[in-house]
Design brief:
The chain has 513 residues and is mainly α. A four-stranded mixed sheet has the order 2-1-3-4, with helices on one face. Helices cover 57% and strands 3% of the residues.
Length: 513
């Protein structure tokens, strides 16, 4: 295997397994998912009311059935699904229960979809399988209690990352399939406003006339509706790119959550299941909870032995209760949509607030001066460093790393500095790559301060890292570059920001995190 192939394989492997999700975070998400899924338990039995002549199975195994199963079979699927959800909620044989819930839900929805209408539930249906592979049953669960009772070792706190990456890619592909028909249709035509047409159709045909629907029905501004058409396609088509990095995944999910809240307010369409699926990227282990809930709970052995009875009786009893009084979807859907929209908006606005706070700190005279360590053997690097120091040499001192006598004292090696620039300030941490350029721009002052703060912000930093690595790899082709500037392949670390097309940032040791 050639070195280039090996490097590419290492990069893909680092990307697949990159991430910082914890089992505790996923366990809390498991509990939340179990509660929401039980409160919104679907009804699988209603297709039995229709004659078999109306049975039109979607492509797949359901085409083998001649018609709808008896009502008793469909009600049994509901009870079995509820039992699986109880097992997931309690964390009892979580992996088995998670996969079984996927099979049961796909079976139940397969029959309900055989009447011609297919909803967007597939990601919520597949979610337990991905989360089970990631380890959402290893904390806050009866499985953990049984494992401790048997003296088995605890799994590491860091969850398996690859199932989460795969699940995020599935979401991105799902969004792309929604965008493609819109792109092929008239959504991008300036002569039509597809979102407005959908709004009118929902209002008059489907009776979606609540919330803000009357206001937007009379809001006849073509530019506004055309912007919504374009924004919808950009969100749906761009999701497949956003899910390649976890930071941009969270950003895209935050935008989508606020988007779904807006769709619900405008058109009364509740894409609540999408908001629930986005929840796995939330760091639930950082959410404050009461001290009593943080304590490790060790239920008595008798209660653990009664878990099968609790799961089976709970599933049957809950399904009968839902069948009698109905589920709580009318309450849960709005709560989830509003909560998701608020969290998404907060995630989007928080970097802006921090950006403003940092800008105010700079204006108040915070010490931002420092020195930029660059590669003097590279003509392009030298030209870039001279530009950063122009007019403000008192704040941005440029120093060739070849003239620094004690690199080890900085925690750096020559191969680190030959690949990327570093910023050393008197008070802050050592920064490399795009972070070094951002710090130098902040120190330079003026409009460069805003650009530097923006580059260092959470949503932009992953993109800036990719751009920096791409430029560094081609610096011998840049203005002022020579053949001697060309880099040799670098070793790849496991880093959550590494994408399939680039090595992780900051390959050498550094002082900041």
């Amino acid at each position: 295997m050639s070195s280039a192939t090996a490097t590419g394989t290492d990069r893909i492997d680092a990307w697949i397994h990159g991430g910082a999700f914890t089992r505790t975070s996923l366990a809390r998400y498991r509990v939340l998912y179990g509660v929401i899924a039980l409160l919104t338990l679907p009804d699988f039995s209603w297709p039995a009311l229709f004659p078999d002549s109306m049975y039109i199975a979607p492509p797949g195994p359901f085409m083998l059935f001649p018609g709808f199963p008896p009502e008793l079979v469909l009600r049994s699927l509901e009870a079995l699904f509820a039992a699986c959800l109880f097992a997931i909620l309690l964390g009892w044989f979580t992996r088995v229960a998670s996969f079984l819930s996927v099979i049961v839900a796909m079976t139940g929805f397969g029959f309900t979809y055989s009447l011609g209408k297919i909803d967007h539930d597939i990601f919520l249906v597949l979610l337990p399988a991905a989360m089970a592979l990631a380890g959402w049953g290893d904390r806050l669960s009866l499985d953990a209690v049984r494992r401790r009772a048997r003296g088995l070792p605890e799994p590491p706190e860091r969850a398996e990352q690859w199932p989460l990456r795969l699940y995020a890619l599935m979401i991105g592909l799902g969004f792309l399939t929604a965008a493609w028909p819109k792109i092929r249709g008239d959504w991008l035509s300036l002569q039509t406003q597809a979102v407005q047409g959908h709004q009118v159709r929902q209002y008059f045909t489907n009776g979606k006339d609540e919330l803000l629907a009357p206001f937007f029905l009379d809001f006849d501004h073509p530019v506004f509706w055309e912007i919504l058409d374009i924004a919808t396609i950009v969100l749906e088509a761009g999701m497949i790119v956003a899910v390649l990095w976890w930071t941009t995944t969270r950003l895209a999910f935050a935008v989508a959550a606020t988007f779904h809240l807006g769709v619900w307010l405008m058109m009364n369409i509740a894409f609540f299941m999408n908001v629930v699926t986005y929840g796995f990227v939330v760091p639930w282990d950082r959410v404050p909870v009461p001290r009593a809930l943080r304590r490790s709970y060790a239920p008595p052995a008798r209660l653990v032995r009664l878990a099968p009875v609790v799961v089976l009786a709970g599933g049957i009893g809950w399904s009968l209760l839902i069948e009698a009084v109905g589920n709580a979807a009318d309450v849960v859907y709005p709560v989830v949509l509003v909560a998701g929209g608020i969290v998404g908006a907060w995630f989007l606005l928080a970097p802006v607030v921090r950006l403003g706070q940092s800008a105010r700190a700079v204006r108040r005279g915070a010490d931002t001066s420092g020195r930029l360590l660059y590669d003097a053997d590279c003509g392009f690097c030298t030209r870039a460093a001279l530009w950063l120091a122009r007019r403000r040499p008192d704040r941005v001192a440029i120093v060739p790393w070849q003239s620094v006598p004690d690199l080890a004292g900085l925690g750096l090696r020559e191969e680190d500095l030959s690949r990327q620039a570093y910023w050393q300030s008197g008070t802050g941490p050592l920064r490399g790559g795009s972070g070094a350029i951002a710090a130098a721009m902040v120190a330079r002052g003026g409009l460069a301060t805003v650009a530097g703060l923006l580059i260092a912000s959470d949503p932009v930093r992953p993109v800036a890292d990719v751009v920096y690595r791409a430029v560094a790899a081609r610096r011998h082709r840049m203005p002022g570059g020579t053949d001697s500037c060309e880099l040799t392949p670098a070793p790849v670390r496991d880093d959550e920001h590494a994408g399939p097309g680039g090595a992780p940032p900051d390959p050498g040791p550094r002082r900041d995190s």
